[in-house]
Amino acid sequence: MKKITGLVRQTILSVLLFIIALAAGSPASAQPPVRTLDINLAQPGKAISSDLFGVFFEDINYSADGGLYAELVQNRSFEYQITEQLSWNALTAWELTQRDGGRGSLAIATAVPVHPNNPHYVVIEVQQPGGGVGLVNFGFDGIPVQAGEQYDFSMFGRQLFTGNHWGGNGVLASPARFVVRLETKEGAVLGETTVNISGRDWQRVAATITATNTDSAARLVVLSQTKGGVALDEISLFPRKTFKNRANGLRPDLAQAIADLQPKFMRFPGGCLVHGHGLDNLYRWKDSIGPIEQRRGQENLWGYHQSLGLGYFEFFQFCEDIGAKPLPVVPAGVCCQNADNQGGTGQRGLPLEAMPAYIQDVLDLIEWANGPTNSTWGAKRAAAGHPESFHLQYLGVGNEEHITPVFEERFKMIHDVLKAKHPEITVIGTVGPFHSGEDYDAGWKFANAERIAMVDEHYYESPEWFLNNLKRYDAYDRTKSKVYLGEYAAHEGNRANTLRTALAEAAYLTSLECNGDVVRLASYAPLLAKERHTQWRPDMIYFNNTSLQLSVNYFVQQLFSQNQGDVYLPVTLPNTATNLAVSSVRDSKTGDVILKFVNVGAEVQPLKMNLSGAKKLAMQVARTVLTGELMAVNAFGKPAAVVPQTSSLTVGEKFDCELPAHSLTVIRMATR
Ligand code: AHR
Q: What number does the ligand 1 atom closest to the CA of 487 have?
C-alpha cells in the first residue's frame, strides 16, 4: 500500500504560508521580493502522461436529458414514474389539450408497447375532433426555439379504433391526421406541420417544423384531427442544428464548451450513476445503444429519469468528435454502498451465478468499441454508422466502492478475465470516495495485490486542503498502480465557484504535472449543472435552456488542458516563495515550452526568468492571465467576472515578468 509520507519540512512551511495567504481577506505580509527562476530547457526532463487533463461527464444536475442531449421533449417515452419523483407519473410534462370544441381524453397503456424496453405509451381518444384533441409537452422548463431554425419532429403511433368506441367495427376508415405545432405559452403558433398515422402496427412518422419566431420557452402541441383512438410513443423534437450535425445529437453550445477544453479523455457515464441505487439500477451499457425507442430508460439516482437517449454510441461518437479518448466506467458487479431503494441495505453484489453473464457484457463492450465489423458486437457498432474502431484504451471498473469482500470478489472476477483476454486495455480500479481512510487504504492494498494498472481517486475538499497537499503524489511508489484522479474540486463552505477555489485547483494541477509520471489522468467533477436542477455544487459549467456560464474553474481546466505537455522540466522554486506554485512542461510534438505560475498572494510577484539550453526562443510569446478578486465568481446570468486575458510578452534567455495578485499565468514559448 502506498503511503503519503516524506513531506519535506521546508515544504510544509511553504505550504502553510501559502494557505495563509490564500485565505480570503488575508493581507499580504509585505511586498514580495523579486524571485529568480532557472529552467534548463535542454534537459531531457521527465516523461509525463500526455492524457493528463480530461473531463468527467456524469448525468447529474440534468446534464444529459434536458442538458447536453439535444432532445427538447421531456418524458418523450411516457416512462416517468412515481419512484423517480413523488409527483411524477407517465404523463408528467404532458397535458391534454382540447381545442375549439374538441373533446377527448388521454390514458396510459402498456398492452402492446413499441418495444418491451419502453413499456408505457399514451392513448388519445378523440370523441369530437373540433379544432383538435391531443397533447402539449412543456419541454424541460420550456422548449427554446429560434426564428428561422428547423426542428425535427418524430413519433411512433398506431391506430386503435376509429368512429365508435371499442365496440366499433374496427374498420380503419382513414389515417389519423395530426397537426404538430410549436406554440408560445399563450398559444401563438411558432410553426407547424402535419403527419398521418395509419394502420394498427407501430410506425414512425417524422416531419420538420421551421420556427417563425424566437421563444425561450415554447411548447410542443400534437393535435389529432380525427375521431377515434391512437396510441403514441417516443414523441421527439430535435433542433436540426446539433453538435457536428449528428443525428440524435448534442446541444451545440454545451458540446462546444466541452470541446473547447480540449480534453484528452472523457470519462462517462458516472459517478454514482454507474453503480446505481440498487442492483436493478446498475447502468447497463447495452440498454443505452440501438434505436432510441428500444433503449431501457431508468431512474437516475440523482432523483430524476435517464432516457439513455444519450447512450454509449453517442458518448463514444462525442469523444471522437472532440479528440478525447473514451473512458467508460462499468459497474464492478455491486451497487452503491449508499443504495437505499432496497430497504437501506447498502452495497450488494450480483449473485455469483450472474457474474459470468455480467463479465460477458463487459467483454462485449470492448468488442463493440474495438472489434471488427464481422464480430457480433462490432457489427452492431457498424450498423449504428461507425464501422471503424472507437479505439477504446481505458476502462473503469467500479466507482468509489466500499472495499468489501463482496466487492473484491466480483472485481477480481472481472479483472482476471480482462487481464487475460484484453491486456491492451488499461483497467482502472477504485480506492473509495476519499483521499484517505478505510476504503482508500483497503483499495490500495487490493490494487497492489491484484496489480491493477490504475486506480481512481476521488476527493472534494477545501482550497486549503488542496494547497496543503501539493506534495501528495511526490511520495507515491512509481512501481505500483498509476493514478487516475477521477473526481476532485475545491469547495468553499457555500459551494461557490470562487477564484480562490480555482487558484487552489490550479496550484494542485501544477503538482499533478510534476507527478504526471504516476498521475496519468485527472478530471474535475461535476462537469455540468442546469440552473434550478442542480443536485451538486460546485460544477464546472452552468447552463439553462438558452445560455451557459463558464465558471472560473472552467478556465483553469482549459488553460491546463490546452497547454499540456508530455515532458516535465523541473523548475526550482525558492523555499521562501510561499505564495507561488510553478510548473514547466514541454510539448514534444511542437517543441513548445509552457510555463504556468499560480500566485495566490495579494501582491504582484516580480520574476526574473533564466532560461538556458533553448536552440531558439521566440521573442514575442503569448501570455494568458486569469485573475480577479479572490472571492469573485462568474455568476449565472451576469457578465463573467473572471476570464483569461491574453497579451504578448517579450521573452529571451533572460526576461522579467510580473505575476498579478491572485492569478494563474500561462506563458507558451516556441523553442524551435
Ligand atoms: O461528482 C459527483 C459524485 O461524487 C459522483 O457521482 C460520485 O462518484 C462522487 O461521490
A: 1
Spatial neighbors of 268 by CB under 8 A, at least 6 apart, are: 56, 57, 58, 315, 326, 327, 328, 329
Which of 234, 400, 401, 464 is an active site residue?
400
DSSP labels, 233-247: EEEEEEES--GGG-T
Interatomic CA distance for residues 392 and 383, integer angstroms? 18
Report the amino acid identity of residue 653: E
Using CA positions, which residue lies closest to atom 4 of ligand 1? Answer: 271
pLDDT in tens, 215-258: 999 999 999 999 999 999 999 999 999 999 999 999 999 999 99
Q: What is the pLDDT of residues 600-625, one digit of tens each?
A: 999 999 999 999 988 888 789 999 99
Question: Active-site residue 95, yes or no?
Answer: no
pTM above 0.85, yes or no: yes
Residues within 6 Å of ligand 1 by CB: 58, 60, 270-272, 399-400, 433, 458, 487, 525-526, 536
Contact 130, 91 (CB under 8 A): no
Q: Tell me: the pLDDT tens digits for 470-512?
A: 999 999 999 999 999 999 999 999 999 999 999 999 999 999 9
Q: What is the grid cell recorded at 241?
A: 442544428
Q: Which one, of 234, 174, 176, 178, lies nearest residue 209 by Cα?
A: 178
Q: Angle between the 438-450 and 405-421 helix axes, to the nearest 10 degrees?
A: 30
